[in-house]
Amino acid sequence: MDSTTVNWLLKAETFWSRCTQDEDGMLGGIPSLHGPDVVGSTNFLKILKKNLIVTKFDNALDCGAGIGRVTKHVLMNSFDSVDMVDLVDELVATSADYIGTDDGIGEKFVEGLQTFEPPIQKYDVVWIQWVSGQLTDQDLTSFLQRCIKGLAPNGTIVIKESVSAGGKTLYHDSDGCWTRPESLLLEIAQNAGLHVVHKTVQTGFPKGLFAVKMIALKPVHPVEEDDD
């Protein structure tokens, strides 16, 4: 890992470790995003279920989970068990109080996504929200390839991310994060071995923010049942 990448990761870890450990901190100081975000994500999952894109709801993985905002308000309402992974130990520790129950919570991993390896063939959905921008293009490609290995048969990867306009990638020095155009995000997913099965745009957010896209992806080469 080169020094530039290390600096980005350190900047991101420092930024998030200093944020308030609540919904306000997780949403960049705009807590009004929480309600429409939860509604948008929940409705997206319902569409995936209705269209038989997601057919099992045993296990999900929340990537960049923080205190567990998405885990608690979106994924736990649909899946029997939800695992969480986040780079910042303090946020993962706070999640126990925020979520308020262990019923439905699986494993909690404290690790950056650039090195994290999901358990093999476990997850019906891998949910990646507002965290892909903290990875370089190469690291994101590699992470998505590892996520494919973590999918159960007919599993789905969901990326929910802010996207830039005009085909330009924008760097945010405050948190060491990139905002990519949708075209580049889809190109990275394709290079990782994924194809789009459904996508939509988040609605109900204030004007002036980046557009937020929800993208459901399946492996080009489907995961097969393990006979062992």
TrEMBL record:
<dbReference type="Pfam" id="PF05891">
    <property type="entry name" value="Methyltransf_PK"/>
</dbReference>
<feature type="binding site">
    <location>
        <position position="69"/>
    </location>
    <ligand>
        <name>S-adenosyl-L-methionine</name>
    </ligand>
</feature>
<feature type="binding site">
    <location>
        <position position="129"/>
    </location>
    <ligand>
        <name>S-adenosyl-L-methionine</name>
    </ligand>
</feature>
<comment type="similarity">
    <text>Belongs to the methyltransferase superfamily. NTM1 family.</text>
</comment>
<dbReference type="InterPro" id="IPR029063">
    <property type="entry name" value="SAM-dependent_MTases_sf"/>
</dbReference>
<keyword id="KW-0808">Transferase</keyword>
<protein>
    <recommendedName>
        <fullName>Alpha N-terminal protein methyltransferase 1</fullName>
        <ecNumber>2.1.1.244</ecNumber>
    </recommendedName>
</protein>
<dbReference type="GO" id="GO:0005737">
    <property type="term" value="C:cytoplasm"/>
</dbReference>
<dbReference type="GO" id="GO:0071885">
    <property type="term" value="F:N-terminal protein N-methyltransferase activity"/>
</dbReference>
<dbReference type="GO" id="GO:0032259">
    <property type="term" value="P:methylation"/>
</dbReference>
<keyword id="KW-0489">Methyltransferase</keyword>
<feature type="binding site">
    <location>
        <begin position="113"/>
        <end position="114"/>
    </location>
    <ligand>
        <name>S-adenosyl-L-methionine</name>
    </ligand>
</feature>
<feature type="binding site">
    <location>
        <position position="64"/>
    </location>
    <ligand>
        <name>S-adenosyl-L-methionine</name>
    </ligand>
</feature>
<keyword id="KW-0949">S-adenosyl-L-methionine</keyword>
<dbReference type="InterPro" id="IPR008576">
    <property type="entry name" value="MeTrfase_NTM1"/>
</dbReference>
